[in-house]
Amino acid sequence: MNKASKSFIISALVQPELWRTINVFQPGTYFANLSFLKVENVPLTPASLQHWLVPFQMKLNDYYTEYGTSQLQRLVERFPNMKLNLIVATIITNDVALLQVLHTKFDLLSCPNKLLKMACIFGSFEAQVYLHELGHPGSDRYAMTFAATIGALDIVKFLHDNRTEGYTGHALDQAASNGHLEVVRWLHSKEYPSAGEAMALAVQHGHMELVQWLHIHRDEVCRISLFHLSANQAKALEMVEWLCVNRCDVDPDEILHDAVLGNRLAIIELLVDRFGVPWSSRHIKTAVRLGNLTILHRIQCKDPRIVDTLDQKSEKAYHEGGLAHGAMALRSCWI
């Protein structure tokens, strides 16, 4: 065999198309399946699902572009866990046409997982309807809460009209927590119960329009902690001001104390200057214990007599907290 012939044979043997054809007829892993060797199983939590889906869906997109759905059975034969992976990814992407193909190949009714609840978690309305009409039993009383959490009003209504699993009582609260006013209105109109946290959660996340609607239409108590208020200064100030004006179940003194704990000077100034909330020894001692010199200076400038409330115990705590330098600076401010 001459040199030219050898060169031609070698160049032919290294062609990817040739090896793909050869691999199709070999036992073991088919070439088409190689990209799924290290794919993890479907995770258990919604947050982990989103993280899992992105790289997996990229692999699937390439796979479907190259092979369509003709080799899915081979893929599942090689990797049995891929059956559930394929079904879940298709539900999340709300691809009913592909779900129909998967049902033909694998029988979705044989899948014991809560597929309808999965559709609720990701707001896949068309997939939800298809699985329901197919007769899949995979839902539970948490489905309504998941749908309300993401504001999927179409799914909430569908569950109300068509499913019998019930609900947890947290759907309205979670809708309020995430600012989904239309969902809250609809659940309220259907007299769905609440766990009593709707107002507090709406306040916590800074949903002013929803807070105002709840104030008019419902009677949940507003349990507020500044530790849970929006970190956005403007939103937090707006919310505190509105609550102090409109809600009698909000204690401005408790809000002030939380503001001292959180070193939120703008809210402190709003409460003291606008609403006249008085300083107390409790607030002074908290600021001393935390070494919040800016707040202490603000207190001293507002009312120099207030420093008389610093007792020996507070001084001791100040030094034991490693704040001797702060104490010296504070004394120089007073002198």
Give the CA-CA distance, first to last residue. 104 Å
Q: Approximately what portion of the residues adopt beta-strand conformation?
A: under 5%
Q: What best-fitting shape do the alpha-carbon axes yield?
A: elongated
* Low-confidence sequence ranges: 317-335
Number of strands: 0
Topology:
Layout (H helix, E strand, L loop, with lengths): L2 H11 L2 H9 L21 H22 L4 H7 L3 H11 L3 H11 L8 H7 L3 H10 L8 H7 L3 H10 L8 H7 L3 H9 L8 H7 L3 H10 L15 H14 L5 H10 L3 H10 L6 H10 L2 H10 L9 H9 L3 H11 L1
InterPro entries: Ankyrin_rpt, Ankyrin_rpt-contain_sf, SecEffector_AnkRepeat
Pfam families: Ank_2 (PF12796)
Q: How would you describe this protein?
A:
This protein is mostly helical and 335 residues long. Helix content is 63%, strand content 0%. The protein has a domain at 21-115. The chain has 21 helices and no strands. Helix 5 packs across helix 7 and helix 9 packs antiparallel against helix 10. The protein is elongated. Residues 317-335 have low confidence and may be disordered.
